[in-house]
Design goal:
Rossmann fold, binds NADP nicotinamide-adenine-dinucleotide phosphate, globular, two-stranded parallel ribbon, 7 helices, about 240 residues
């Protein structure tokens, strides 16, 4: 896309949003639009509609969400479902109404069934029960994907979704109660070494296998002709 086109990065202070801002900036995209939550609460429908009507971004990357690890997801399903539905419904609807040319909705690999085949094919979506601890979050994310697909099918909107795997990197959350797996493991290992502990205690059975992706690799803007094996998203 044109490097001077206006790109709204929703959630620019988060781990993913800040990596996208860093990367887009370094790629020469000069017209980045961001708003702190204190200025624009994305759960507020009328505020979001006003913001879009005023700013009219050309491209939207939706990296704002209520995000957390197993414990907060399990303890607060109402908040994870409602806040995420509100944020994504408001942003996606306003984007369509104000003529956004392209929208990227970020979801998560937890949308796939708990016992999906490995590696997970896209066709596994909605083919079985979800992992119960983060079901509310996953349902919200599935609704976001389906809303983008519905806008594309019914109105021809260029709204797409990406489902990254477990991410890590700068601006990750290292809180032992609310963080994701890798940040918690890093902190536990660091503190155990600092204390010279003889053992490292982690949650779970130790059996699960996971994939991890550095957030800067996620944020790499695809250069179709320069990089034959891209991993980022083409704007
Ligand atoms: N982290 C992962 O491992 C991972 C893996 C796969 C997919 N993803 C997806 O990537 C996206 C971003 O995740 P992340 O890890 O970057 O999360 P994060 O670090 O918690 O960042 C979330 C961002 O959303 C903003 N936000 C939340 N509620 C808001 C509201 N009501 N109004 C305005 N802004 C709001 C936060 O603002 P504040 O700065 O004010 O809190 C923050 O900037 C999510 O959709 C997530 O599903 C993440």
């Amino acid at each position: 896309m044109n490097k001077s086109g206006k790109i709204f990065v929703a959630g620019h202070r988060g781990m993913v949003g800040s990596a996208l801002v860093r990367r887009l900036g370094s790629e020469g995209f000069a017209n980045l639009l961001v708003r702190n939550r204190s200025k624009l609460d994305l759960t507020n429908e009328s505020a979001v509609a006003e913001f879009f009507a005023e700013e009219k971004p050309a491209v939207v990357i939706l990296a704002a969400a209520k995000v957390g690890g197993i414990k907060p997801n399990n303890d607060f399903p109402v908040e994870f479902l409602l806040e995420n539905l509100r944020i994504q419904n408001n942003v996606i609807q306003s984007a369509y109404q104000t003529g956004v040319r392209k929208l990227l909705f970020l979801g998560s690999s937890c949308i796939y069934p708990k016992f999906a085949p490995q590696p997970i094919p896209e066709t596994a979506l909605l083919s079985g029960p979800l992992e119960p601890t983060n079901e509310a979050y996953a349902i919200a994310k599935i609704a976001g994907i389906k809303l983008c697909q519905a806008y594309a099918r019914e109105y021809g909107a260029n709204f797409i979704s990406a489902m990254p795997t477990n991410l890590y990197g700068p601006h990750d959350n290292f809180d032992l109660e609310t963080s994701h797996a890798l940040a918690a493991l890093l902190r536990k290992a660091y503190e155990a070494k600092t204390r010279k502990d003889r053992e490292l205690i982690v949650w779970g059975s130790g059996e699960p296998r996971r994939e991890f992706l550095h957030v800067d690799d996620l944020a790499r803007v695809r250069r179709r002709h320069l990089n034959p094996r891209p991993c980022g998203v083409d704007l």
